[in-house]
Write a structure and sequence with these properties.
With about 120 residues, the protein is α+β, with helices and mostly antiparallel strands. The protein folds into 2 domains: about 45 residues, Rubrerythrin, domain 2 (Single Sheet); about 70 residues, no CATH class. It contains 5 helices and 6 strands. The strands form 2 sheets. The chain has a 3-stranded antiparallel beta sheet. The termini are far apart.
Length: about 120
């Protein structure tokens, strides 16, 4: 599969810059402009942070204008109504909601690591 890019041409100097297109798990593709300043000496101007992605996440998708918040593709409303804390923890770590057996194993592992360290008792 070929790398997806977009080419930016500086009409003042004729310099060209190839920028990678990042394909998210959800939402529109994003152009990686990190080389823009390094290679051409330009910053971008996006008042109100309207068309700028602030981070790359395979866990969370947010579209505030549409009121959409997804965790690993699941709407937050669905998780709040139908899943408990440990199920959501499993989802965030492993990428999908657990089966009953997976949840039992996960809860066992997590509860084995909830013992308070002795050094914290004197804190």
């Amino acid at each position: 599969m070929s790398k997806k890019t977009v080419t930016l041409i500086d009409n003042r100097t004729g310099k060209q810059l190839e920028l990678d297109i990042l394909e998210p798990t959800c939402g529109p593709p994003t152009i990686d402009i990190r080389p823009l300043y390094r290679e051409l000496g330009y910053f971008t101007f996006d008042p109100g942070f309207i068309s700028t992605a602030s981070c790359w996440s395979e866990i969370t998708y947010l579209d505030g204008d549409k009121g959409v918040l997804l965790y690993r593709g699941y709407p937050i409303e669905q998780l709040a109504e139908s899943s408990n804390y440990m199920e959501v923890c499993y989802l965030l770590v492993y990428g999908d909601l657990p089966s009953a057996e997976q949840l039992r194993e996960f809860e066992f592992i997590v509860t084995q690591h909830t013992v308070l360290h002795e050094a914290l008792k004197g804190f």
